[in-house]
Amino acid sequence: MPINTFKEDESTRQVLKIHTLLRLFAYMLKYRKEILQVLGLMLVVIAVGTVNPLLLKVSIDDKIAKGDVPGLLGILLLALLLNGISMLCVRERILRMSRVSNLVLMEIRQELYVHIQRLSFNFFDNRPVGKILSRVIGDVNSLKDILTNSVVTLLPDLATVVVVLGVMLALNYRLAVAALAMLPFLVLGMANVEIRAHKKWQTFRQKNSNLSAFTHEDFSGIRVVQGYTAEEKTSRTFGVLQQEVKDSFIAASRLNDLFWPMVEISWGVGTILVFVLGVGMLDSGEVTVGLLVAFTTYIAMFWQPIMNLSNFYNQLVTNLAGAERIFEILDLKPDLQDGPEAEELPEIRGEVEFEGVDFSYDGREQVLEEVHFHVRPGETVALVGPTGAGKTTIVNLIGRFYDVDKGTIRIDGRDIRTVTMESLRRQMGIMTQDNFLFSGTVEENIRYGKLDATREEVEEAAKAVHAHGFIQELPQGYGTLVNERGTGLSGGQRQLIAFARTMIARPRLLVLDEATSSIDTSTERMVQEGIARLLEGRTAFVVAHRLSTIQKAHRILFVDGKNILEDGSHRELMDRQGRYYDLYMSQFKWM
Ligand SMILES: Nc1ncnc2c1ncn2[C@@H]1O[C@H](COP(=O)(O)OP(=O)(O)OP(=O)(O)O)[C@@H](O)[C@H]1O
């Protein structure tokens, strides 16, 4: 997929709506017991509702007409009792159904989250995080009404329609036909609206997603925004994106607004026809006053569920696009998967070999071509070279975050595609430049490297990378809260915490994308010592920017022109007076 930004709508694949619906409802099967209970409760409510007009008919035709006061009171008491029970059932139904729909939402969201976490870097490379958030939060939320109403509305209202229709036909079939005369026109009208509205609701969801992507990006980069006083520009962009959301909503809901008038007109016409016909029948004695009154109540009882059903249909049309977007992601297969024969990688000794490796991110632009190198266990290898040369790409390939297009990468002689990714990555420590910290305490952040580590192990790891000293001086020591940006900590301190997090995991293979940010000399010294401790006794690849790291490395690989141009120790490469020598002389001589 080409890179998508907040400026472009995501494309949505086309699937049959009925498939999406069935797939959604399948999640509810697990809760069939609760759903049956809800339906049972609704049956009571429908039964009481259906009996009410009959009680009215008997009261008018038999009791009031004959002056039977005790009989009338009896019917009144019965009606009170029945309706009281019905109210309790309604309350219980709402509680149970909201529990079921929330559980289903949780399940879908969890599935989506777990699935997205397994997707390869490729998926995240091309999508703004805000758009992913929009699917996990917004689109999942949009399903709530569909789920609830599929039980509360769809089945009971369909049942009501059928029951009331039966009663009406039994009471007087001619009046019944008159009441429903407009139904076929209504169905045709709705189908027509749905076809046109669906696309528009898809657009609405896409515009929402764009807004979410922009907002996320803007707040994530708020320091840059404020640093360049770009607030006005970003506010304008936000305004434009909001306007697009609003316009797409209005365009879509304009069509949906047609639903109500269509139902009301059909209802009204049906009622008029019943009265016109019914009054004539009164004269001929074919119907009684009580029956006509009861019949008008049944008309309302027939059309009200139709109204609810059309409302449900309206919600389906509105929110189905959300379900489509969720299933689209759930159906994405991770680019990288363990092969059926994949085995656990035994404890890594640390031999790494690239043999004839070709790689391209997009299948067009070659980033690496015929790369060969061999690293012995315990060696520290510094990757240096101009920006964009492919250093980070090489270390990403070692962790199998992407697959090579050609050639083989071996660890301890095993092709990394033949071992499980979990067993490979579990034994690797990967430190990226941004030293991302999660919101929580310093201790929790260090423990991230080994979730069951004790407090002693956390402190030991921090001591090993020389982070213990400064952590103790923080206001709450190891309990000090940091957030995702590491606010409250200096760049160097963030690095030291990240070192401790890696240290505690005791990785057999270390990948370190060294941060370029300059830090004060005393922290720099601590960071250097921290790095040295991390590198001890394990194979390490360092995308190196520090002269000290480079000089101490056993080997330096100079990367450029899609390949390793020079390979040797600092001394050897300096003696060779090649590309590394030039880079060193131009960049490092003043350091
Ligand atoms: N996710 C990606 N999708 C597409 N192209 C990418 C991606 N990541 C990197 N590239 C491209 O691959 C090439 C190598 O990038 P890489 O990040 O490996 O370089 P580098 O040597 O680590 O650079 P630097 O020193 O600036 O970090 C660059 O041309 C870059 O534009």
TrEMBL record:
The keyword GTP-binding does not apply. InterPro entries: AAA+_ATPase, ABC1_TM_dom, ABC1_TM_sf, ABC_transporter-like_ATP-bd, ABC_transporter-like_CS, P-loop_NTPase, Type_1_exporter. Keywords: ATP-binding, Membrane, Nucleotide-binding, Transmembrane, Transmembrane helix, Transport. Residues 38-318 form the ABC transmembrane type-1 domain. PROSITE patterns: ABC_TM1F, ABC_TRANSPORTER_1, ABC_TRANSPORTER_2. It is a multi-pass membrane protein. The chain crosses the membrane at residues 38-60, 72-90, 258-281, 287-306. This is ABC transporter ATP-binding protein. It comes from Anaerotalea alkaliphila.
